[in-house]
Amino acid sequence: MPFGRRHEVGIVVDGTASSDIDQSRIKSISEVIDDAPLLDANTLAVLTFAASYYQHPIGEVIVGTLPKRLREGAPAEDIVQMVRLTEQAQPDDPTLARAPRQKAIVSRLNGADGPLPVAQLKSLHRSVPAALRRLEQRGWLTRYEQRAGGARDFRHDNVAKGPELSDAQASALAAINASSNFQTFVLNGVTGSGKTEVYLRAIEHVLKAGRQALVLVPEIALTPQLVTRFERRFAAPIVALHSGLNQTERASAWRDARAGRAAVVIGTRSAVFTPLHTPGIVVVDEEHDGSFKQQEGFRYHARDVAVYLARRHDIPIVMGSATPTLESLHNVAAGRYKALELPERVGPGTDPHLQLVDLREESIENGLSATLVNAMRRHVDEGAQVMLFLNRRGYAPAWFCSGCGAIARCTDCDANMTYHHRHGALRCHHCGSARKAPETCNECGATHKPVGQGTERIEALLAELFPRARVARMDRDSTRRRGALATTLNRMRKGQIDILVGTQMLTKGHHFPGVAMVGVLNADHGLFSADFRADERLAQTLVQVCGRAGRGDRAGEVLIQTSFPEHPLFAELINGGYAAFAQRAMQTRREASWPPFAHVALLRARSTRENTGLAALSNLRNALGPLPGVTVLGPADAPMRFRAARFHSQLLLQSGDRRQLANALFRLRAQINDLTRNNRVRISIDVDPVDLY
Predict the structure, then answer these.
(1) Residue of 521, 63, 494, 484 whose CA lies nearest to 270
(2) Which spans in 271-416 are helix H?
(3) C-alpha closest to that of 367 among 380, 382, 377, 357
(4) Pick from 333, 334, 330: which is nearest to 595 by CA?
(5) Are 69 and 301 in contact (CB under 8 A)?
(6) Are the CB atoms for 558 and 352 separated by under 8 Å?
(7) Residues 633-643: tens digit of each pLDDT
(8) Within 13 Å of residue 646, how many CA atoms lie on the same side as its CB?
(9) What does residue 51 show for φ and ψ, rounded to 5 degrees?
(10) How is 624-693 classified by DSSP, letter by letter?
(11) Are 264 and 236 in contact (CB under 8 A)?
(12) How far apart are CA 549 and CA 557, in angstroms?
């Protein structure tokens, strides 16, 4: 459509018979791209719900969830360019001997049963486009376009046989398969209990009915291994959707899902908005993972949108985790969700033995206690693999002056710069700024030294302590290069790594049968945080990372280093597991009126000017007056007040009634638009925030 001096692609979501705008000012649409609706009614309803619930403009929501190719004007239907030989073509013409590329194309087309897609011919050599043009000029070849095929019937696709199910797995599967309508299942299974096998069997049941499955995973790292496992099981087409794809791949997968050519769609959070032709089941793997929450712009939670998606399509949804969120457990207790328990590991694996290492009484060398090092040495000598978890990348979290005690700070954040030894650089892990690490202090001239431990420093230390062991690191820095993460995971599975040190990436559902020991280097982060979800995240992380040990023939051992061994969280996890922690945490949340016993929304303000955001939020609160049924806390500075060269402040809304909170937020949106139009401040709404930072 014409938009000023340019043309833009738009999406029509509704129409009207009349307009208050003068007819002379209304411009006509220049071109209709699709002759059928781009989005079906159910997909549009899901997008509309998400826009309303998360208080975000519907236009940005719809456009932001489409592949870039479609946003630029490509049609929703996949148009395939085809080529075929004409009657003038002479496959035996001797002149083709001097044009080997043309000869290869003619030979392929002559041997085919019919026309072929141009994309299929491109595998012959790089110069296919030029060779095709020359064949067209000779009159030997003609091109035309056609739409890709429609929906595929998956009912007769071969399915490879899986392992024998345990009684608990069989019971969970029976409950899922018996539900042909909407039902939310929480598959609560300990690590190694075979949740993925239950997913596979449930999806098999759906495919045999000729319907599709949507599988959401929290991280790109999990997508390739899950796709491989699904491809080994099913002969049906499987597509992946995540940010690691190029734009052509993403558009192709989206179209295959929409047209019904893809049987299974596996993707990260944004895949929840993918239109499906005949959906039959939704699976959310590791439903507790914070990666399902979008933290910028359109701040939706894919797990919760997936529940609405399943309700809209009237199909079951399975949310699996060894550490379900307190919200999910609360919904189970209230009867809204149905719990399916997998209390034991399957196969030879057994639950690992957990032991606390008191750092107040241990001799420490660069973050490694003597007890931990001795245990590692024992396992490595026995040929087992060891994993060390430290959720802090880089070499050291502080660059310290030995003379005046100054610590290198980020100029754009209220944070220390992290030292990265390999590049000799200081980097801020909050805004991404970097600079060369100075050798001497600008103030006193004394030398600098790194203080504290990051994964890079631990990796270097392990190389010294275990010179014969194969040591590797898995964090955002070491896996930045394309394919690096997959290489590390493959080496680990093949037993080509003896000791793997890493960050949160280690907790993401990986299955390493050779790992006999897991060491948690610093378990105290989160014990005393002001964020009400911090203890839940810490408990989930500890349970998940500890669950990597003891999955094979060897008994598992977990050593957790802490300076607070008497903290009740550790006692709960060791004596009663995650369930004991969740029971106590639920009671604490109830007493404090925090989620899941209340609903919250966070208004975040950011500005280049100090106190401007605070003033804007204060004006906003005063202008609205009392909000029925809603408690307003703040405004106040954010826990990190200065970040990415902006001053941050926030206002918290709390209510026991979700509808009253939504009404208050709706009133706030209109005020926010007026406020930000005339002030140098940006205010965003975060409904159901996963953290208060």
Answers:
(1) 63
(2) 302-313, 326-333, 370-381
(3) 357
(4) 330
(5) no
(6) yes
(7) 989 999 999 99
(8) 16
(9) -60, -40
(10) H---TTEEEEEEEEEEEEEETTEEEEEEEEEES-HHHHHHHHHHHHHHHHHHHHSSS-EEEEEES-S---
(11) yes
(12) 7
pLDDT value of residue 87:
87
Query: Beta 434-436 vs 425-427: how paired, if at all?
Result: antiparallel
Q: Report the C-alpha dihedral over residues 524, 528, 530, 531, rounded to 10 degrees.
A: 50
Q: CA–CA distance from 423 to each of 101, 412, 437, 594 (Å)?
A: 46, 21, 9, 44
pLDDT in tens, 49-100: 999 999 999 999 999 999 999 999 888 887 778 888 998 888 888 888 888 8
Chain mean pLDDT for the chain = 90
Q: In the sheet that 515-520 helps form, which strands lie side by side, from edge to edge? A: 353-358, 557-562, 515-520, 385-389, 499-502, 471-474
Per the structure block, which two tokens stand in for 170? 């069989």
| DSSP-assigned states of every residue in 8-41 | ---------S--SS-GGGPPPPS----SS-SS-H
506 is written with which tokens? 């280690």
Tokens 């026995």 belong to 382
Tokens of 58: 């519907």
Cα(348)–Cα(624) distance, integer angstroms: 61
* Cβ-based neighbour number of residue 87 at 10 Å: 6
Q: 3-state DSSP call for residue 465?
A: helix
Contacts (Cβ under 8 Å, ≥6 apart) of 507: 389, 541, 544, 545, 548
Global pTM value = 0.88
- Residue 409 region, left (φ>0) first, then alpha (ψ -120 to 50), else beta? beta
Tokens (6 digits) for 193: 């209990």
C-alpha separations of 135 from 88, 90, 119, 139, 282 in Å: 11, 11, 17, 6, 48
CA distance 487 to 497: 11
pLDDT of residue 446 exceeding 80: yes
Sequence-ordered strand ranges (E) for 510-598: 515-520, 557-562
Q: How far apart are CA 518 and CA 354, in angstroms?
A: 9
* Separation CA 179–CA 165 (nearest Å): 19
Q: How far apart are CA 174 and CA 192, in angstroms?
A: 20
CB-CB contact of 154 with 205 (8 Å): no
Contacts of residue 236, Cβ cutoff 8 Å, sequence gap at least 6: 152, 154, 157, 207, 263, 264
Pinpoint the alpha helices (H) of 494-567. 534-546
| Both structure tokens of 464 | 């010294």
Question: Measured between alpha carbons, how far is 315 from 308 in angstroms, rounded to an integer?
Answer: 10
Output the six-digit token pair for 466.
């275990």
Q: Regarding beta strands 646-655 and 599-607, do their DSSP bridges make them parallel or antiparallel, or are they unpaired?
A: antiparallel
